[in-house]
Design goal:
The chain has 213 residues and is mainly α. The protein has one domain. Helices cover 68% and strands 3% of the residues. A hairpin with a 2-residue loop joins strand 1 and strand 2. Helix 1 packs antiparallel against helix 7, helix 2 packs antiparallel against helix 3 and helix 3 packs antiparallel against helix 4. The two termini are 13 Å apart.
Length: 213
């Protein structure tokens, strides 16, 4: 079981590639890219703009767009693999719904990467929104499940879920409280970062258990 959990935890830890590769693709853009005004998915557009996304005018061009789309797919699959491999490390059955939602979120993220927004906007948008919503709800459920055995980890996991849900509402409802890019990042970043934190925690915890044995 320890080996299985280590593999799953490593998958979650590798999800940090979402942030690293995004920074690399952004640095390669030949048109101005704004963290507050542009969407994350704009970095995966397969042809230089302009491109109209439901009234949102996109003029972004990165020659490294395959890296961004590939990252969506890879990180989505890492989330799925991690949830499946680490399930025995969680307080069950309370964590089951959260792990299932995390698997669905990973599938949604992978589908979004396979359908860039300028190729299939409908599929990309639907998959991305399901991925975001399921991920944040998953963090909320997993955080609540952790409040008993590991309170500090449970609290920050719940907070990540709440932050993401708040950002998703602002982003999904097109509220003007925050710029569109900022709202999307509030919806996505906290929970993906929390997946990485959970992976690191499980790696450390499993190592301690192994050493104690």
């Amino acid at each position: 079981m320890s080996r299985q959990v280590v593999v799953g935890a490593a998958c979650w830890t590798l999800s940090i590639a979402f942030f690293v590769r995004q920074a690399i693709v952004q640095a390669a853009t030949t048109r101005p890219y704004s963290l507050s005004r542009n969407l994350i998915s704009d970095l995966g557009i397969t042809a230089c703009g302009p491109f109209s996304d439901g009234g949102y005018h996109v003029v972004v061009c990165s020659p490294l767009y395959p890296l961004m789309d590939g990252t969506f797919v890879a990180v989505g699959l890492l989330q799925v693999a991690g949830a499946m491999a680490t399930y025995r490390a969680w307080p069950l059955p309370r964590a089951y719904p959260g792990l299932i939602l995390l698997i669905l979120a990973g599938i949604g993220l992978a589908l979004a990467g396979l359908a860039p927004e300028n190729v299939d906007l409908s599929l990309h948008s639907t998959a991305a929104m399901f991925g975001i919503d399921f991920l944040n709800i998953a963090m909320l459920i997993l955080g609540i499940a952790l409040l008993g055995p590991t309170p500090w980890l449970g609290v920050i996991t719940v907070l990540a879920g709440i932050s993401g849900i708040t950002g998703a509402i602002i982003f999904g409802e097109s509220l003007t409280v925050l710029p569109i890019g900022t709202a999307e990042r509030l919806a996505v970043y906290p929970s993906i970062a929390m997946v990485v934190v959970l992976g690191i925690y499980l790696l450390v915890k499993t190592r301690h258990v192994t050493n104690a044995a």
